[in-house]
Every structure is written in structure tokens, then in C-alpha cells.
Amino acid sequence: MEDLVRRAARDLAESKYAIALTGAGMSTESGIPDFRGPKGIWTTDKQAEAKAYQRYELFLSNPRAYWEEMLGLGGTSGTSYEEIRQARPNPGHYALAELEALGILKCVITQNIDGLHKRAGSKRVLEYHGSVHVLRCLSCCSRSAREEASLTELPPHCQCGAALKSDVVHFKEPIPLDVMRESEREASRCDLMLVCGTSAVVYPFADLPRMARFPSRRSVANLDVIAHKASVEIIEVDAGPTPLTHEGVSDYLIRGKTGEILPRICEFLHHPL
Ligand code: ZN
How far, in Å, is the centroid of ligand 1 from the Cα of 85? Predict the structure, then answer.
């Protein structure tokens, strides 16, 4: 594994445009439970899962009831906003922020909604599934800080008059177009992608590494020809193999905790052997 850590450091140092994709595996090390893991929120509470599936439709039909549920006024379980607010970034988050400060990492695209990358100091973060710290207007697409919103009267309203929703992307809700387009642009232009703590099975997020690997699909005489982009290096840091490993999308996997591996990659960058 030591060899792979060294190889990743070397690949990063040689890259021109590296980006990182991160998922729940990074946040669990900060004490935030995932949804579908062995102790995941939905694995242990099927009712919470059923409610989560209905949440977007609930907002559309009854924004007030949606907010009452979001604020736990109906006694809902799951990870509360307060719990997430109290979570702290772990060494993996700080390592990615450091890679950005070194000028190596150009952007982090995350599935996580906890805002821990920004708290660790990462500047360019695309929150693919939104953020618990932000409210979003589905009507005029503006975003605002949740801290500054008054939630005494529900639902909160946007300046344009529409009801505000949490920025978090719920089931059946489309990914905000601006974030999706920018993420796709980053995935297409990068020459190195560091995939950290995500099994890459939730779509369309899971398309991003595939988009980097197979940037264009051309149809020639009814045959689907996939242009292989050999110049991109896709490195996984995860507890175990993922579909990206099995399908040959990634070049190699460094097995372990992101909170341990990523800081060691940074060490090698500072002290190359
Ligand atoms: Zn608005």
C-alpha cells in the first residue's frame, strides 16, 4: 500500500488539472452516519427512509409540512441539522484542502451535504447533492445561508416570493442544473481524478468518473464506439473495491480510511523520496 500512496503522490505532482470526488466514506470518519451502510440511517430506520423518498413531493405539495418535518417538529429521526453542525472535519478533509492550497487540486465535487470540505478550508467545492447550510429557491434558483434565515414562520420565503427549500437534493428531485453542468465540465477536463470514500453507485453522480474515463461515445455503423481517454488517471481511496474498480474505470485503488491515506499522500508530496 505504501507503494500506491507514493504512486498517487507522484501522479498528483505530475498532474495538470486534478480534481477530487468525495462521498459518505469521508464523512463517516467525522461521526456522520451514512444512509445505506451497516449502521446507516435508512438501514436501521425504514420509516425514515420512506419519509425521505416522499420529501421532495411533500415540499411541492405542502412546503409548511415539509419544513415541520425537516425541523423535526413531527418527531422524525435521522441525523439532525444540529448534529451535522457540530461535526468537525477530519484529517482527510484537511488533506484535500492542503492539496488545493498547493495548487494541485483544482476542485472538490462532493455528494456530502455537511459542508465539511468548506470548513476544512477547501475553496472550490461543488456540492452535488446540496448543503444543509444553504436554502435554495426552486423558482429563481437563488441560494442563501440557512443561518441567516428566520424559521419562526414556516415556510421561509425567498425575495421573489416563492417558498424556500433546503438546498439538499432529495429523492426524485433533479440535481440543480448549474452544479451538474459545472461538475460535468470538471470531470471532462481533468487529467487526474481522486475518488474518495464513494462506491459510485448513486446516479447521476456516478456518471462523473465514467465521463472522465470515456469522454465521448460515437455511433459508427450502429456500433457504440467508446473513445478511451488514456491520459486520465483515476485513483480510488476507499475501504474496499467498488464498481469503479471492478469495471476498470479506476486505474488503481488504495485501500483504507481516507482520513489516513490522504494525509500520507500529502506527506509524500512534501517529502518526496
Ligand atoms: Zn426566489
Answer: 25
* Distant-in-sequence contacts of 49-58, Cβ < 8 A, 24+ apart: 51/76, 52/78, 52/170, 52/171, 53/171, 53/172, 55/170, 55/171, 56/170, 56/171, 56/172, 56/173, 57/172
Closest CA relative to residue 69, chosen from 30, 176, 126, 80: 80
Sorted by where each begins, the domain ranges of the chain are 1-31+88-128+175-273
What is the mean pLDDT for each group of 10 consecutive residues in the chain (273 residues)? 93 97 94 76 78 93 94 63 90 98 98 96 98 96 93 94 96 95 96 95 93 70 52 95 95 97 95 72
CA of 250 relative to ligand 1 center, distance in Å: 40
Catalytically annotated residues: 129
Query: What's the pLDDT tens digit per position in 156-203?
Result: 999 999 999 999 999 999 999 999 999 999 999 999 999 999 988 889
pLDDT in tens, 99-126: 999 999 999 999 999 999 999 999 999 9
Helices and strands in the chain, H and E counts: 12, 11
Q: CATH class for domain 1-31+88-128+175-273?
A: alpha beta
82 C-alpha to center of ligand 1: Å? 26
Q: Which residues contact 264 (CB under 8 A, 6 or more apart)?
A: 5
